[in-house]
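Consortium newsletter contribution from the modelling node. Members have asked for a concrete example of what our holo predictions look like. Here is one, prepared for the guanine complex that several groups have been discussing at recent meetings.
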Amino acid sequence: MTPTIHAHRSALIHSLGDPTETGIEKSFEYFEDGLLIIEEGRIVAVGDAQTLLSSLPADASVTEHSNSLLCPGFIDTHIHYPQTGMIASYGEQLLDWLENYTFPTEQHFKDKEHAASVAEVFLNELLRNGTTTALVFGTVHPESVDAFFEAAEQRDLRMIAGKVMMDRNAPDYLTDTPQSSYHDSKVLIERWHGKRRLHYAVTPRFAPTSSPEQLALAGQLLSEYPGLYMHTHLSENKDEIEWVKALFPERSSYLDVYDHYKLLGERSIFAHGVHLCDTECQRLADTDSAIAFCPTSNLFLGSGLFNLPKMESYKIKVGLGTDVGAGTSFSILQTLNEAYKVMQLQQHKLNPFKSLYLATLGGARALKLETKIGNFEAGKEADFVVLDYNATPLMSYRLEHAKNIEERLFVMMTLGDDRAIKETFAMGRSVHQRDAN
Ligand code: GUN
Ligand code: ZN
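And here is the predicted structure:
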């Protein structure tokens, strides 16, 4: 039996490159009446419907999407699933927020059943918002990571996650030891890394909560297994940076702490990087490390304004992160809305095609997954979303006056949220339908 071919007909857009490098025109492909052809969960072709329809075999099925825009699934390069239930916690900046809200919330993830129930809510929320891949913090408990990967595996999603390593400067109920964190991470790596669409990230929370011994063992894990990710926080808040200086006086910068323990590299993703000096930027670029830009979180915690043009000037890979629960939305559209404002406050513009890139192919590149996901190139996995131009009365009304796809995109990114995600697909299968019953 030959595998079935399925096609989706709609207006369709995807990124081909970073507009900063290619120029706007060459950075994307748009088909007003497009066709996306899928076989066994992978993309076979994308192009003009009129041209491609005639090439379809007789038994191929075609789904038509009206008043819609198809684009690749969104990629969230930094998020905490255990913080789903504490999103929108009032009043603090980073260090007090961690102590007063985050740590007490995370203690409950020792209970695997609790972790599993939150993982379900979390994955539903990602898919409701059109996010098909995420780089995810667990808690210090290995149970939290098992629960997350089990839920992601069941839905056949491409996800990256890891157990938090933290052995100091946190409540006793939430700390491990260098040895136990090394051992527990190893067991999880053996169990999950490379299974189906899952990858493991070695996850020291941030420099202040790890001893030198623990950071050394994190580096050792990375050297022992090829293809592992490294996921942590960096230079988010000024008090945090002062604290790192006091804890590691012999290191020349916050990034240098991680560098010393061999935690930089092409699969290393640092959340925030709001207050980086030139030397740190150069080192991130030289090691091909990536930054997760988390605008809703940076504004919510009053951390500061991320300098995207500076990162571009150093050619540092950048993806978008929601950073829920410090971030205030699971929606990458809303994250782009806030990213635009962060740029405005620094007298810079965020072009809608650059936004599309950051949300899709740029995120894939930051995660070194660009050969698998991020756009509609033939052979890639068919993770995509159907955006609804009529998601709200205001959006319909506003789009009546939109001149072109650039304006449409910008309106979707400014007004859009979960209501704009009509359907989400992973490996060609529908995994979320907004209007289901
Ligand atoms: N730095 C260390 N831990 C965290 C966390 O959970 N959230 C954020 N935003 N920053 C952190
Ligand atoms: Zn975070």
